[in-house]
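Key result, reporting period 2: structure in, sequence out.
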């Protein structure tokens, strides 16, 4: 795992997107975590993996589509959304949230920010925060008004790369239930609520 500023070569590996190296967060034999530069325009680009040690590269590039918005909620191995109480403890089925509570949620792909400058490979700024555009959050089906959560703030976490924080308030009229699906909507794009790893939350 790399520290900031992120390197373009890590563990003898380099990844190029649109023929330019991109910052790497982690590199192993089975997985590479990289950052899409925040200044890269939406579009489809060739991606190549290069082994510096072996002086080799991918035989064929992979076409990668980059979108302005691609929201996704961070989850653990059980699909539990990365949502935390004010005291820092995670919201779980055994430690659920309740109505009229303030929470913090972590996500990625919330798109462009305003305020503090964001640079590829560098930690998000702290002196002037990088704030997202309008974000909507739902605990439960988004077509139910009782599913809406109040978003009090949304932006990049200072000191981290590509991690967004959303400060939430669960209104007193919110529905309750076990394993409610969690969805973020930004720029008209919704985070996934289908598949093998749907983020969920419990509200009592």
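The corresponding designed sequence is given below.
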């Amino acid at each position: 795992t790399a520290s900031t500023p992120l390197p373009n070569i890590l563990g003898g590996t380099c990844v190029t997107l649109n023929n330019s190296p991109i910052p790497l967060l982690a590199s192993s034999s089975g997985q590479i975590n990289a950052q899409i530069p925040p200044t890269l325009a939406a579009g489809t680009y060739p991606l190549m993996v290069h082994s510096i040690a072996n002086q080799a590269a991918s035989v064929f590039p992979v076409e990668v589509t980059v979108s302005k918005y691609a929201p996704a909620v961070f989850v653990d191995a059980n699909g539990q959304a990365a949502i935390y109480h004010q005291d820092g403890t995670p919201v779980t089925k055994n430690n659920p949230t309740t109505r009229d509570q303030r929470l913090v949620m972590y996500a990625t792909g919330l798109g462009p920010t305003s305020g503090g400058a964001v640079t590829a490979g560098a930690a998000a700024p702290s002196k002037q925060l990088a704030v997202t555009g309008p974000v909507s959050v739902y605990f439960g089906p988004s077509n139910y008004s009782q599913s809406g959560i109040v978003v009090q703030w949304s932006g990049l976490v200072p000191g981290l790369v590509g991690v967004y924080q959303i400060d939430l308030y669960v209104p007193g009229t919110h529905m309750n239930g076990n394993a409610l699906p969690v969805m973020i909507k930004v720029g008209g794009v919704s985070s996934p609520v289908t598949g093998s790893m749907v983020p969920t939350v419990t509200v009592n």
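The chain has a mean pLDDT of 94. DSSP finds no helices and 19 strands in the chain. This case is discussed further under Risks and Mitigation.
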